[in-house]
Amino acid sequence: MYPVYLLSLLLAAPSFFYVVLKMNIPQLAYFRNHLASTIVLVLAMQQAWVPMAALGWNVVAWAVSVEVFFYMVFPFLLSRFSRLSNRGLATVALLGWMMPLAAALAYMVWLPDGVYPDSSQDLLFWLSALKFNPLVRLPEFMSGVACGCWFLRGNHNPKLAARLVLAGTSLALLITAFSRWIAYPILHTGLCAPAFAAIICGLALRPPAVAFLESRWLRLLGESSYCLYLFHPMVIGMVLYGTGRPSYSVMRVVGTVLAATSVGVLLFRYVEEPARKRLRGKPPASALVVAP
């Protein structure tokens, strides 16, 4: 993970430091005034813990900061949740979905930042805490772990697979269709978590209609999604805004998607995977299985 993460920071550094140090943009004053601490936080993958630093350097890297925390607490959650009954797991999943929504609703009632937030105001202190802080996102993760524990217990009816996928997809599309009427903070909670849980569980039951998802090329796209996520803002910036005049024609948008996907695959094959193998080293001799 870290070698690709560090490479993304190296490539994002010129634009980030130029904008922060050379352009007088009021919204970026925090980074200019706290540049050293932002650098340390981002390099240590801890930026999401400081609301105003969460989007520093490589904007999308805040999610990696949250994931690092989730990796740390996962063994603890798994050991506890595996002892719960199905009813207990359902309770955890429901509460994990509702708690972030409650926090977002409380934000909308009190408006602690003093303004009604929208997509152009990501650098507000309390809004950033609501969207990026690992503790705020933890209930959403707990909900997913609870669903995973339930699924691994088995005894599920395969006939439910298509229904789950259809129900989850319909719910996600419904939320998307009405997103313009849903408050911005609420959209950035686990609002779609039940839809995604239904889709994932349905696909895990392996309905015949989606067998194509197990193809080699689609697995490669899934494996390279981490690289795609970290580098897609830079690719989009270069393709859509490289000429100075953004273009949103169909061909330009399709080209941007293909370019970002290709970059993700290449980085996975020639950077992430080789780095992972080098860091892990060779497996011990006792772990090698010799074919008869």
For the terminal residues, how far apart are their CA atoms? 35 Å
Proportion of residues in extended strands: under 5%
Proportion in helices: 55-70%
> Which structural category fits the helices and strands?
mainly alpha
- Whole-number count of domains: 2
Shape from CA axes?
A: globular
Tell me the radius of gyration.
Answer: 21 Å
**Pattern of helices and strands:** HHHHHHHHHHHHH
User: Helix count, per DSSP?
Assistant: 13
Q: What low-confidence regions span 5 or more consecutive residues with pLDDT below 50?
A: none
What's the overall average pLDDT, rounded? 89
Number of strand segments: 0
Largest sheet: none
How does the SSE layout of this entry go?
Blueprint: H1 2-22, H2 29-33, H3 35-43, H4 62-81, H5 86-110, H6 125-132, H7 134-152, H8 160-177, H9 184-187, H10 193-204, H11 216-223, H12 225-241, H13 250-280
Helix pairs in contact: 1-12, 4-7, 5-7, 8-10, 12-13
Short descriptors:
292 residues; mainly alpha; 2 domains; 13 helices; 67% helix; globular
Question: What does the model show?
Answer:
- The protein has 292 residues and is mainly α.
- The chain folds into 2 domains: 2-155, no CATH class; 215-275, no CATH class.
- It has helices spanning 2-22, 29-33, 35-43, 62-81, 86-110, 125-132, 134-152, 160-177, 184-187, 193-204, 216-223, 225-241, 250-280.
- Helix 1 packs parallel to helix 12 (225-241), helix 8 packs antiparallel against helix 10 and helix 12 packs antiparallel against helix 13.
- It is globular and about 60 Å long.
- The relative contact order is 0.10.
